[in-house]
Amino acid sequence: MILHHMATWNFRNLAPGKVELGSGLNVIFGANGQGKTNLLEAIAVLGSLRSFRSHRYRPLLRHGERCLRLEGMLGSDSGPVALEVSWEVGPPPRRQLRLNGDSVHVSRYLQVFPVVVLAPGDRELVVGKPQGRRAYLDRLAFLLSRRHLDHLQRYRKLLDQRNAGLVRGVGGHEMAAWESQLAESAARIVLARRRVLERLEPRFQRIYHAIGGEGFPELRLEYQAEASLPPGDVEEALAEIYRKRYNDQRDRDRETGYTTAGPHRHDLMIRGTTGHVRDYLSAGQVKAVAAGLRLSFLEEVEEDRGEVLPLGIDDVDAEIDRAVTQRVLSLAAKGRQLVVTSTRAELGAWKDGSFRRHMVRDGSIQHVVGREESV
């Protein structure tokens, strides 16, 4: 799959219009603050409906505007695909999603163009709060099975009901009915995450060691749940454990005002031989771990779909040395379309001389023709 072109309207500082992309490496270059990352961010929002810099849409709007629109044309094994995202401030805020001109549900849309971006903010995936790592596992589980999103949405609804019931002092019979359903959803989510991580671990190890090379510490990925939660993949047994736990902890949870057990409090732990990696990895090593997580995620989705997918890399050579940059690009390429931002027009680590360049200045994007490509 490749993104042939991308068009934006009122997205941050980007000038309205269309950008044509090549099927190989695309270098988006320019001085800091000109809009390079904004273009990559627009591609991420087009595919995943989420920015890697903001969880809200309003910061994505050009100043003074009230709506934005993104369009993209994809080439896939099944033929051309047109995507469109539009968002209006409101009130109420309104988002519309179109696939080949037809309005579609978010779960259908998100399956079409699962773009992955490596960005400096990915360090939070390694050393930041657990919700980012939970979202990482849940997105992968969803892309491998659409039902996972239904389970997540149901779990969150039931969790809100139980939390509200705890605060209002709802009686035990009604609470038990909610808890039984909540336990079933919790079991499905935990098992899905465990299975995804089991698939991901060996792939991550291979990619992480290929990126880091000698001198990078040994790491392992672990799914961290409640200490007493046993291993295994029997859904009903796991659901029964949660039913009992919710019942036994109900009084304590009433005191706290929220549910203290369940997948909403779990974590993907990244551990080394001397403890959690946040305590001792350098900035460059953290970036290598994050790149390993993103690339292993991408490979899992590609294997499941049977096609390669585009990859974005923001500020490709920041915080890691030239040798590591070369290894990241070599692993990332593998026949994929790459969209890479850099302050430099040419990437010294890129040995293949053919690539397409776009210069960004004050939000305007200009294709630069050079000897590296034929047009």
Pick out its properties.
Rossmann fold, 375 residues, Glutathione S-transferase Yfyf (Class Pi), Chain A, domain 2, 10 helices, 2 domains
CATH homologous superfamily classification of the largest domain: RecF/RecN/SMC, N-terminal domain
The count of DSSP E runs of length 2 or more, i.e. the number of strands, is 15
Shape: globular
Strand order within the widest beta sheet: 2-1-4-5-6-7
CATH architecture of the largest domain: Up-down Bundle
Structural class: alpha/beta
β-strand percent reads: 15-25%
Radius of gyration: 22 Å
Could you list the spans in which at least 5 consecutive residues all have pLDDT below 50?
Answer: none
| Largest pleated sheet | 6 strands, antiparallel
Query: According to CATH, what is the class of the largest domain?
Result: Mainly Alpha
What does this structure look like?
With 375 residues, the chain is α/β, with parallel strands linked by helices. It folds into two domains: 1-115 and 309-375, P-loop containing nucleotide triphosphate hydrolases (Rossmann fold, 3-Layer(aba) Sandwich); 122-305, RecF/RecN/SMC, N-terminal domain (Glutathione S-transferase Yfyf (Class Pi), Chain A, domain 2). 42% of the residues lie in helices and 22% in strands. The chain contains ten helices and 15 strands. It has helices at residues 36-48, 106-109, 123-127, 130-144, 147-168, 172-212, 235-248, 250-256, 283-305, 322-333; strands at residues 2-9, 17-20, 25-29, 67-76, 79-88, 94-99, 102-103, 116-118, 219-224, 267-272, 275-276, 311-313, 338-342, 356-361, 364-368. The strands form three sheets. The protein has a six-stranded antiparallel β-sheet, covered by helices on one side. Strand 1 (2-9) and strand 2 (17-20) form a beta hairpin. Helix 6 (172-212) crosses helix 7 and helix 6 packs across helix 9. It is globular and about 70 Å long.
